[in-house]
Specification:
Strand order of the largest sheet: 3-2-1-4-5
Helix content: 40-55%
Radius of gyration: 19 Å
Oligomer: single chain
Structural class: alpha/beta
Length: about 230
């Protein structure tokens, strides 16, 4: 068994050379004022920055909107409520008066729910590989995980991922609680993925069968890589 809190991010994360992930939420802030909150999460899962601004300024001030777009333009963006998130990004783009194609953010979006499913599915594949190897080599021990994941088909919404991570709602105003809870869940997902892929470093037969370790779940990694080259004309 491995202490999940002690699992080190994969060395391959350093090779990403990308800013990481942004979480953007709109909701009630200080004094019940609608606000826009942005949290930054590094590829290794660490929180690296936080910004909160009143929504009326974010969606009406060219300067404020542009400043917020600079916080998400080169980052993967966690999509929890995709429709609302895309509407907010569209409003920011209009307010910022940026001449760019509609839906510029689409390749940067990823679903934490899909990241969980990809992790659970990847673990199942490694378990099957280990079981097959044990049929010919009895000294091979079964794979064990710090945190057993539910079957990927059982997780269909972000709240289920948050419960699996045992992360309670963070304190603070509603918008701060939401954005911080998401950021903390992303950190957990990074740790669980790292524990999963590190099996390849400990068991050569798993590496031979499934290839080199991946730094992040496939869709999340694709979003990080796509975002890293997407600079807006701000």
């Amino acid at each position: 068994m491995t202490d999940l809190t002690a699992v080190e991010p994969l060395e391959e994360l350093a090779a990403l050379r990308a800013p990481g992930t942004a979480v953007l939420c709109v909701g009630s802030g200080q004094d019940d004022l609608e606000s826009v909150a942005v949290w930054h999460v590094s590829p290794a899962g660490a929180a690296t920055g936080a910004w909160i601004v009143p929504a009326d300024g974010a969606f009406s001030s060219r300067e404020v909107a542009r400043r917020l777009l600079t916080l998400v333009e080169r980052r993967a963006i966690a999509a929890i409520h995709s429709q609302g998130l895309e509407k907010s990004l569209e409003r920011l783009t209009i307010a910022a008066e940026v001449q760019v194609e509609d839906g510029w953010w689409k390749r940067q979006l990823f679903s934490p729910v899909d990241a969980y499913r990809e992790t659970a599915e990847r673990r199942q594949r490694y378990v099957r590989t280990a079981e097959a190897a044990r049929e010919t080599t009895k000294s091979i021990t079964p794979l064990e995980w710090t945190h057993d994941l539910a079957d990927e088909t059982d997780v269909e919404e972000f709240a289920s991922v948050q419960r699996a991570a045992r992360i309670s709602d963070a304190p603070g105003t509603p918008v701060v609680s939401e954005v911080l809870s998401i950021a903390r869940t992303l950190r957990w997902l990074v740790s669980v993925w790292a524990e999963t892929e590190q099996v390849k470093n400990r068991r050569r037969y798993v590496r031979d069968e499934h290839g080199e370790p991946d730094p992040l779940p496939p869709q999340w990694l694709a979003a990080v890589q796509a975002a890293s080259t997407n600079r807006l004309p701000l």
